[in-house]
Write a structure and sequence with these properties.
The strands form 9 sheets. Strands 13, 14, 15, 20, 23, 24, 31, 34 and 35 form a 9-stranded mixed beta sheet that branches. The chain has a 6-stranded mixed beta sheet with strand order 3-2-1-4-11-12. A 4-stranded parallel beta sheet has the order 6-5-9-10. The two termini are 48 Å apart. The protein is an alpha+beta fold. Helix 1 (37-48) crosses helix 7. The longest helix is centred in the N-terminal third of the chain and has 32 residues, at 197-228.
Length: 703
C-alpha cells in the first residue's frame, strides 16, 4: 500500500496525478517548461505533495517526449555506425518516398540520413541468413574502427552486422572491442534482433542517438525528485503500453519514442467498455487509436517524423523504428494550434502551435496569434481553466482572422472550431475506415485538455452515438500511466526454428532478467506470439502463439483476411518469435485499487483505517477542484442560429440527464454537449454523451 505519482509532459501542459491508497487522486496541471522539462515536473509534483510526506510515495511513472523530440529536432548525440564490409552505404542511401507535395517538387532534396556518411565504418566479417560463418571476424578491422571513432571524439556507436539476428557472436565481439575505446555502444542484437538490416540499423542508431540524452535526463529527474523527498523508483512508459525501469529505459531509449501517446490509450482502455476509439486532444496534438476487447492495437514498426496523410505516416519517410508501439494516428491539432490565412486566402489551423510559451492569446503571456483555445473561449465553450483566461485578448486575436475573411468574430471562431474538428476526425478515419473498421460500433473516449470540447462534433462525422468522457479527463494520460504494468519485450528472427518452445524459453528468460525476476515467479505473465507469412512472401503478420499447428495457421488465415480483406490459404512459415514478460502487480500499486481516473470526485474520502501516517486531510491543498457552476452563459451553436443561453453544470450538478445544448465544466477540461446530444453521469463518474438516432436516410458526413 503506497502513493503513486504519474507524470505526463506534453507540448503545452505538464500533468501530474497522485493516487492515494484509498484510490482517490490529487491532480495538478501546469505549463510545460521546454528548456528544462524537469522544472515543470517539479512544480506539478510539489503541488500534489502539498501536506503529504514525500516518503510515502512508492512509485513514480513518467511519460516523456524526450526521445521523439530529439529525433525530430536532430539534437541527439553524434553516432558512429559500424557494419559488415560492403554495407556501409545502406543507411546513407536510405529509403525515400516522394509523397504529398514532394511528389511535385522538381528540386526535391531527400532528408539527411540519421548518421553522417563519413561516420560509417566497416569491419571484415560475414554471417549467412542461416547463421553460418562465411567470413571469420577480423578483430583488427574492429580495432581500427574503434581507434578512428575515438580519435574523432565520437562517444556513441551503433553496431549492426549483416544477419546478426541469426548468430550474434561477431556483433557481440565487435561491440566489446568498441567499448574499450567508446563510452556508449549499442548492438542491434541487444536492441531488436530482427530481419531486414535497414530497419534494424535505423532502430539501433536511434537508440544510440538518444540513449545518452535519456540516461542524463532520467538521472537528473531522479535527483530532482529526491531533493523533494521522493525517493521512489522512477518507471518510464514504453511505446507498447507497458512501463520499464529508468535503468532499462536508458539502455533502450528507442522503446520510449511513443511514450506519451501510449499512456492516454491505456486510460481509454481502463474505461472497461471493450471496443472504443481513444481520442486524446491536448494543447499541441490530437491522437486516435482503436481499442478492441479492452486491448489497444499494437504495431511492430512505425516512422518517426516524415510525411503522410491525416495522421498516418508513409513508409519511406521519416526514420523507421522496429519496436512494439501502440498503433495510433496523430495530427498537429490541439488547443494551442494557431489559425492562419494562407496565400490563397483560405483559413488554416495548425500544425504550428503556440505551445506553453507564449501560449494562446487568452493566456495573457504575450501570445497574440489566434488559436483553437481562443476560438473556443469566444464561442462561450470555455470559462474555467488551470490558468485565468482573458476573453478580450481572445476576441482581439480572432478579429485578426475575421477582418480579412469578411466575417464576424463569432463566425471566424466557429470556422476555426469546425476546421480543427475535421482535422482530428481525419486521425480517427486513419485508424478505422482506412483499416476496414466500421467506427459506428465503437464508443469514442475523449480526454485531454481540449478533447471533450470537440468530441461530440468528431463523433457526429462517423455516426458514433456514444461519447465517454472519464473523470479527470484533462489529465487522463497521467492517470493512465498508473495503469501500466512493468514489462519487457524480446524478439528474435529465426527462420525454420526446429524447437520454437526452446526459442520462447530463451526469450522469456532474457526479458524476465530485464525485470529482475524469473519467468516462473508468481505474478509474472508471459505472452508469446510469432511472425508468420505465406511461403514465398516477404512480409509477415504477428499472431498469438498456438502450439497446435492447425490452430496457429487458422489464426494466421483470419488475421490475413482482416488485414488484406481476402481469404487466402497456403503453406505458412514462421519468421520470428516474440515474448512480452509482465509483472501483473507493479511495485507500489495496491491490488485492490480501482483503475486510475475512477476515484470519486469532490472532497477526498476520509482515510480508511490503517492508512499510512502522514496522509493529508481530505481538503488537501494543491488539489484541483471543480468551480461552482455559473448557471448559464451564451454559447455559439449554428443549429440555433448563433449564441444562445446555455446551461452550465459540473459532474456534481449534472442531474439525471442534461439535454444539449449544454456545457459541463471540469477542473481541467470542458465538455460541450451540442444540440441533439444528451449528457448523463455513468459508472466511475464518467460523463456519457448519447446522440439521438439520425433521421432515416441521413448520411454520415464525409471526412
Amino acid at each position: 500500500m503506497g502513493f503513486a505519482i504519474g507524470v505526463d509532459v506534453g507540448g503545452t501542459f505538464t500533468d501530474v496525478v497522485l493516487r492515494r491508497p484509498s484510490g482517490a487522486v490529487i491532480v495538478a496541471k501546469c505549463l510545460s517548461t521546454h528548456d528544462d522539462p524537469i522544472a515543470g515536473i517539479v512544480t506539478g509534483v510539489t503541488r500534489v505533495l502539498s501536506g503529504l510526506d514525500p516518503g510515502l510515495v512508492t512509485r513514480v511513472v513518467h511519460a516523456t517526449t524526450l526521445a521523439t523530440n530529439a529525433v525530430l529536432e536532430r539534437r541527439g548525440v553524434r553516432v558512429a555506425f559500424v557494419t559488415t564490409r560492403g554495407f556501409r552505404a545502406v543507411v546513407p542511401l536510405g529509403r525515400y518516398a516522394r509523397v504529398e507535395e514532394d511528389r511535385y517538387d522538381l528540386r526535391f532534396t531527400p532528408p539527411p540520413p540519421p548518421v553522417d556518411p563519413a561516420d560509417c565504418f566497416e569491419v571484415t566479417e560475414r554471417i549467412s541468413a542461416r547463421g553460418e560463418v562465411l567470413t571469420p571476424l577480423d578483430e583488427d578491422s574492429a580495432r581500427r574502427a574503434a581507434a578512428e571513432i575515438a580519435r574523432r571524439g565520437i562517444t556513441s556507436a551503433a553496431v549492426c552486422l549483416l544477419h546478426s539476428y541469426a548468430d550474434p557472436a561477431h556483433e557481440r565481439r565487435v561491440a566489446a572491442i568498441l567499448r574499450e575505446r567508446v563510452p556508449d555502444v549499442v548492438a542491434s542484437s541487444e536492441v531488436w534482433p530482427e530481419i531486414r538490416e535497414y530497419e534494424r540499423a535505423t532502430t539501433t542508431i536511434m537508440s544510440a542517438y538518444v540513449g545518452p540524452l535519456m540516461a542524463s535526463y532520467l538521472s537528473r529527474l531522479e535527483d530532482a525528485l529526491a531533493a523533494l523527498g521522493v525517493r521512489a523508483p522512477v518507471h518510464v512508459m514504453e511505446s507498447g503500453g507497458g512501463v520499464m525501469s529508468a535503468r532499462l529505459a536508458a539502455r533502450r531509449a528507442v522503446a520510449t519514442i511513443e511514450s506519451g501517446p501510449a499512456a492516454g490509450v491505456l486510460a481509454a482502455a481502463a474505461t472497461g467498455l471493450g471496443d472504443v476509439i481513444s481520442f486524446d486532444m491536448g494543447g499541441t496534438t490530437a491522437k486516435a487509436c482503436v481499442v478492441r476487447g479492452g486491448r489497444p492495437e499494437i504495431t511492430h514498426e512505425f516512422h518517426v517524423g516524415g510525411k503522410g496523410s491525416f495522421g498516418g505516416r508513409r513508409a519511406g519517410t521519416g526514420v523507421p523504428i522496429r519496436t512494439p508501439a501502440i498503433d495510433l494516428a496523430e495530427v498537429g491539432a490541439g488547443g494551442g494550434s494557431v489559425a492562419w490565412i494562407d496565400a490563397a486566402g483560405a483559413l488554416r489551423v495548425g500544425p504550428h502551435s503556440a505551445g506553453s510559451s507564449p501560449g494562446p492569446a487568452c493566456y495573457g503571456l504575450g501570445g497574440g496569434e489566434p488559436t483553437v483555445t481562443d476560438a473556443n473561449l469566444v464561442l462561450g465553450y470555455l470559462a474555467a481553466a488551470s490558468i485565468p483566461l482573458s476573453p478580450s485578448l481572445a476576441g482581439k486575436a480572432l478579429d485578426r482572422l475575421a477582418e480579412p475573411l469578411g466575417v464576424s468574430r463569432a463566425e471566424a471562431a466557429h470556422a476555426v472550431h469546425t476546421i480543427v474538428s475535421a482535422a482530428m476526425a481525419s486521425a480517427v478515419h486513419v485508424v478505422t475506415v482506412q483499416r476496414g473498421i466500421d467506427p459506428r460500433g465503437f464508443a469514442l473516449v475523449a480526454f485531454g485538455g481540449a478533447g471533450p470540447a470537440h468530441a461530440a462534433r468528431v463523433a457526429e462525422r462517423f455516426g458514433i452515438g456514444l461519447v465517454v468522457v472519464p473523470e479527470h479527463c484533462g489529465v487522463a494520460s497521467a492517470a493512465g500511466l498508473l495503469a501500466g504494468e512493468l514489462s519487457a519485450d524480446r524478439v528474435l528472427s529465426r527462420l525454420g526454428a526446429r524447437d520454437p518452445e526452446a526459442v520462447f524459453a530463451g526469450l522469456a528468460a532474457a526479458a524476465a532478467a530485464d525485470l529482475g525476476v524469473s519467468p516462473d515467479d508468481p505474478g509474472v505473465r508471459v505472452e508469446r506470439s510469432v511472425d508468420a507469412r505465406f511461403a514465398g512472401q516477404s512480409h509477415d503478420l504477428t499472431v498469438a502463439w498456438e502450439p497446435a499447428r492447425d490452430r496457429l495457421e487458422s489464426r494466421f488465415f483470419a488475421r490475413y483476411a482482416q488485414v488484406y480483406g481476402i481469404e487466402q490459404r497456403g503453406e505458412v512459415e514462421l519468421v520470428g518469435y516474440r515474448v512480452r514478460v509482465t509483472l501483473a502487480a507493479p511495485s507500489g500499486a495496491s491490488p485492490g485499487d480501482p483503475p486510475p481516473g475512477t476515484a470519486p470526485s469532490g472532497p477526498l474520502p476520509s482515510p480508511p483505517p490503517g492508512t499510512a501516517p502522514g496522509e493529508p486531510p481530505p481538503a488537501a491543498p494543491g488539489r484541483t477542484s471543480s468551480p461552482p457552476p455559473p448557471g448559464t452563459r451564451p454559447a455559439y451553436f449554428p443549429e440555433l442560429g448563433g449564441y444562445a443561453e446555455t446551461p452550465v453544470r459540473t459532474r456534481a450538478t449534472l442531474g439525471a440527464a442534461l439535454d444539449g445544448p449544454a456545457i459541463v465544466e471540469d477542473a481541467e477540461s470542458t465538455i460541450v454537449v451540442p444540440p441533439g446530444w444528451t449528457a448523463r453521469l455513468g459508472p466511475g463518474r464518467a460523463v456519457h454523451l448519447t446522440r439521438a438516432p439520425s433521421p432515416a436516410g441521413e448520411e454520415t458526413r464525409d471526412v
